[in-house]
Amino acid sequence: MSTTETSKTDMNMRGKIIFYEDRNFMGRHYECMSDCADMHSYMSRCHSCRVESGCFMVYDRPNYMGNQYFFRRGEYGDYMSMMGWRDSIRSCRMIPMYRGSYRMRIYERENFGGQMYEMMDDCDSIMDRYRMSDCMSCHVMDGHWLMYEHPHYRGRMMYMRPGEYRSFREMGYGGMRFMSMRRIMDSWY
């Protein structure tokens, strides 16, 4: 990691999330302060959680797969009803705090094809802003982002950290269109 990257990411900022087996913070619990690829070894089910610090993406399948949901500081006593999930959390990823510029290129087609637009701030509708009906690949240069299935930051979401994402279809999001994008800001922590 370069000096510039270290200064943009606060390495002292540790997130903490506590998962509970039952609703309303009951039953056995598991405290997590980093990524966890498979929570099944710690608990058989998870129906509520409390984020004491930081931000996390949680997934309904092991290895950061399946449906995703963003949690920031707060209490989620019955998140399954809130999200409409039938299964429980199976993995989670801590989102590092980031301070710096945000930059992402979105593409209409896979492998960075078709129309391209560079974003540096939130976009509540790519259709309204860019007249772009689909986004099938992207390149995140700076910052951490959430992409949403519908305009105005609604529907299913996907966490995007710096890197190249050549095909959302090959990542398992073939039937999903991303129509809005939001930066994960340090004020959310």
From TrEMBL:
<dbReference type="InterPro" id="IPR050252">
    <property type="entry name" value="Beta/Gamma-Crystallin"/>
</dbReference>
<protein>
    <submittedName>
        <fullName>Gamma-crystallin M2-like</fullName>
    </submittedName>
</protein>
<dbReference type="InterPro" id="IPR011024">
    <property type="entry name" value="G_crystallin-like"/>
</dbReference>
<keyword id="KW-0273">Eye lens protein</keyword>
<comment type="similarity">
    <text>Belongs to the beta/gamma-crystallin family.</text>
</comment>
<comment type="function">
    <text>Crystallins are the dominant structural components of the vertebrate eye lens.</text>
</comment>
<dbReference type="Pfam" id="PF00030">
    <property type="entry name" value="Crystall"/>
</dbReference>
<dbReference type="GO" id="GO:0005212">
    <property type="term" value="F:structural constituent of eye lens"/>
</dbReference>
<feature type="domain" description="Beta/gamma crystallin 'Greek key'">
    <location>
        <begin position="15"/>
        <end position="53"/>
    </location>
</feature>
<dbReference type="InterPro" id="IPR001064">
    <property type="entry name" value="Beta/gamma_crystallin"/>
</dbReference>
<dbReference type="GO" id="GO:0002088">
    <property type="term" value="P:lens development in camera-type eye"/>
</dbReference>
<feature type="domain" description="Beta/gamma crystallin 'Greek key'">
    <location>
        <begin position="54"/>
        <end position="96"/>
    </location>
</feature>
<keyword id="KW-0677">Repeat</keyword>
<feature type="domain" description="Beta/gamma crystallin 'Greek key'">
    <location>
        <begin position="143"/>
        <end position="185"/>
    </location>
</feature>
<dbReference type="GO" id="GO:0007601">
    <property type="term" value="P:visual perception"/>
</dbReference>
